[in-house]
Design brief:
Layout lengths: L1 E6 L2 E7 L5 E4 L2 E4 L1 E4 L5 E5 L2 E11 L2 E6 L2 E8 L1 H8 L5 H4 L3 E3 L4 E6 L6 E2 L4 E7 L2 E6 L4 E6 L6 E2 L4 E6 L3
């Protein structure tokens, strides 16, 4: 899995291996152990160093946390965000908060929601196959699925509206 994060103006590119024990951070190998504690604290051990991570808050791509008592905020880009950026596509969620449009041409493999279902920002909605890769498309906003414009196995074009989300309330 690939991630990119900007903390205090410094960009961190991270590749995690599948078992979650090794990472490559800005082209440097890093072995680590991740331990979740009952009180919500996460301990991260790398070599002889131990890091205490507390007050973790995730809202969409925005993540805030304290690391050994110092507070940090960052925006995290995942595999999908990085792929879209590499291909020169803008994140469709930014263009229209209440709609989800196809970021690229492809085929709908799976629809994980139904009309009338309540969703939170970041919830998985659809799987779009594009360029032989499966891309999980996530909710751009909190709300209720107002209408689905596609069904499983549909072929879609770039910027085609896939579904609409109306605000709760």
């Amino acid at each position: 899995m690939e991630f990119e994060s900007n903390i205090g103006g410094e960009v961190f590119r991270v590749h995690l291996n599948s078992d979650g024990s090794k990472a490559v951070v800005n082209n440097s190998d890093l072995e680590f152990e991740w331990m979740n504690q009952k009180n919500g604290r996460v301990l991260l051990r790398s070599g002889t160093k131990l890091y205490k991570i507390d007050n973790i808050s995730v809202q969409g791509r925005q993540v805030s946390f304290s690391l050994n008592g110092s507070f940090f905020e960052t925006t995290v880009k995942d595999d999908q965000d990085l792929l879209l950026e590499k291909l020169g596509f803008e994140e469709q969620a930014d263009a229209s908060i209440g709609t989800l449009a196809a970021p690229m041409p492809g085929k709908i493999l799976e629809i994980m929601v139904k009309e009338g279902q309540s969703v939170d920002m970041g919830d998985p909605l659809l799987i779009l196959e594009a360029m032989k890769m499966e891309n999980e498309l996530k909710a751009p906003a909190d709300g209720i699925i107002d209408s689905l414009h596609v069904k499983q196995a549909d072929s879609v074009e770039k910027n085609q509206i896939l579904l609409e989300i109306k605000p709760r309330g």
